[in-house]
Amino acid sequence: xxxxxxxxxxxxxxxxxxxxxxxxxxxxxxxxxxxxxxxxxxxxxxxxxxxxxxxxxxxxxxxxxxxxxxxxxxxxxxxxxxxxxxxxxxxxxxxxxxxxxxxxxxxxxxxxxxxxxxxxxxxxxxxxxxxxxxxxxxxxxxxxxxxxxxxxxxxxxxxxxxxxxxxxxxxxxxxxxxxxxxxxxxxxxxxxxxxxxxxxxxxxxxxxxxxxxxxxxxxxxxxxxxxxxxxxxxxxxxxxxxxxxxxxxxxxxxxxxxxxxxxxxxxxxxxxxxxxxxxxxxxxxxxxxxxxxxxxxxxxxxxxxxxxxxxxxxxxxxxxxxxxxxxxxxxxxxxxxxxxxxxxxxxxxxxxxxxxxxxxxxxxxxxxxxxxxxxxxxxxxxxxxxxxxxxxxxxxxxxxxxxxxxxxxxxxxxxxxxxxxxxxxxxxxxxxxxxxxxxxxxxxxxxxxxxxxxxxxxxxxxxxxxxxxxxxxxx
Amino acid sequence: xxxxxxxxxxxxxxxxxxxxxxxxxxxxxxxxxxxxxxxxxxxxxxxxxxxxxxxxxxxxxxxxxxxxxxxxxxxxxxxxxxxxxxxxxxxxxxxxxxxxxxxxxxxxxxxxxxxxxxxxxxxxxxxxxxxxxxxxxxxxxxxxxxxxxxxxxxxxxxxxxxxxxxxxxxxxxxxxxxxxxxxxxxxxxxxxxxxxxxxxxxxxxxxxxxxxxxxxxxxxxxxxxxxxxxxxxxxxxxxxxxxxxxxxxxxxxxxxxxxxxxxxxxxxxxxxxxxxxxxxxxxxxxxxxxxxxxxxxxxxxxxxxxxxxxxxxxxxxxxxxxxxxxxxxxxxxxxxxxxxxxxxxxxxxxxxxxxxxxxxxxxxxxxxxxxxxxxxxxxxxxxxxxxxxxxxxxxxxxxxxxxxxxxxxxxxxxxxxxxxxxxxxxxxxxxxxxxxxxxxxxxxxxxxxxxxxxxxxxxxxxxxxxxxxxxxxxx
Lengths: 475, 475
Description:
Chains A, B: Keywords: FAD, Flavoprotein, Oxidoreductase. Chain A is of the alpha+beta class.
């Protein structure tokens, strides 16, 4: 079906202000935050902005009739081309469908539409003394629908896990346009083991099995207290060892972040006032809970980590906590300033490795950076082995771009070699599906069987998550 | 294929001591803890006791060739006929394959074979300062494989969630005999979002999608301290309200248990020395964490719950904690002693309801008990709305048996009416699949599509979890 015919069919479903078919409008939907999107033209044939399950279902049914790809999209803050029309089709932009429909305080859960922004949800829940623990760095942009589709997490996954832990049920428009509710049609229970666990299958499925239109999330009581410990290390090896010592002392911090020497240097160049000590690594421990428990854990961290660190400082005062956290909070921006013509790119940016391989991973990523002549800054969630590498390159230089791509590939392969994964929290999309066979082996066939059973015509977000049939190539 | 031919084929795979084909031996595998199994003859055609993935795969391949059902089994402690050969076939008893293969302390995970008993695993992990938090009542019997297949939990699900939260990866023999590893073939990372989340799909799938042969579990640092608060209520309504007050004060106890008046009476009859106060409800709060934090939360619970309860007692002394917990620990046994000719049965025993429906559920279960003339004792995990009802009947009286079945059906329907589920933690098996369409509506079709994609010949544990095609009937 040509674009004009498609537009006229979509006009029967959507009012003009929620149907985008102009060239410029469509072009706005041709990129996300990924490196790959900069070099491709993934412009969709049409964009729709639904505000009801019926509109989503009608769109999917239309697409199914004509074999047109459908690509769900949240804020577009992803780094994997996950929300891009890599094979053309209709982008379903859910970001304006942002109703918080019900906060059920008595049952500790909240019902939202997919477009609700993470930050806004937690602001809203705070009035009830509740919170939704996962906290991605993109909190002020990313949507709950996108978080569910990608099983997002962030700083607090060490203690609080990832989005999947909080998903009690989903309304989903399937690839044939049928609507189902997972976790029980009218269920408001917190615990339920009846049926196959479809909720958890859809979490992290990146839109290849259907479009999530309503989300039932478990929320938790907001902790009353918080504290931050900052530890400075002369020897990189001591940092993961200190993390393990903390775990062994019976403490599960809400987050443990690492800045390696590359990150420390970038932060100090970006803002000399922050003035981080010149060291091989800095660890930041965040602890939350009740005031007495937080203080106990802070003192214990000082005692335990102090045996390996040059210095440890513990703070519960909000001003001092913000100061200790300041380096971490600017690292993503600081990386880009490593060189005046540099841009920080998202490629090989999200590997996870076993905790006992973190040191080796950081060392070898630095070596790979030198080998390919690309500056890299490393930071991340060391508490669960999730390393964010920020390559910094001149985007105008094709040779640097090529070397950056080779570096990203080498980092992904390093992750697999070390018994890790190419992605700890950002997802696969069209940039990491080429590694699926290496990571998952024969399990990829099982994933394909499920995909085919639900979407035999392959219209739901094609070219993502799974490698193409018959090979391990890209999208 | 007749039983003798089957036995001779299985002899090529198993040594004689791990292949059971005698009448008495097979009869031993015809029941679990469910009520239904008492009245059926679900004797398998053969029983095998594998000790390797190869043996399991060879068994499944043999079964697939001949279209014979395969039924995985752990300890047989389930209450749903989940491990019984409701359509004949080969029971795969995994309980003797109980190796704890690796405790990887540095990476906070453990690798086990399916037959490891829960209690033994935690005893083993204690030496490393680690633990696997879910704690079913059947801890001394149930296997980790069974826990994964049923997504088991127990007292501590309020804070620690269910088994699924800890499953990082699985080795699974699929219905065609192929072996896959979910969560990454060689992965030891704690965080991994690449690929469809097959691990979580297999958790709770009750053996209908494959046989779990190896389990990679995340484990946590063992908390250093623990405390128990016991609160006594004159008014049943106040008990769930007190639970919510505790949540609102920012506390997430590791467990919150309820004993209603029926349970209190049963416990005091069973052992007058326990001498629980004659009240409408007793709540037991368990708190764990670090010593200072536990004490803070205990005092807060006394303060908050004290506003609604007749009395609240807080203890951290192990002896006193055990005394406070004593009633709860004997309730399952005590229920059976309500009458001299009585047996406690497992039917309608595991509903979950929204927290704000717990009072109504308890009241109406009592009414239903009166209506059907069946004595019931109610206890359970009120913190997540999971109610364990224990009907007590004379098994020799066919009329009572019939009334008990009607009562169980009414309790299951009540759960759905109240926005809950027929099963909070025990599973579906062959006793609750008749409610799947009422609970899940059109999502049952999606479950069926997945089942058919992986097991087109329906040999893996047929008659369980999903209702039979074309209707909402039983197994």
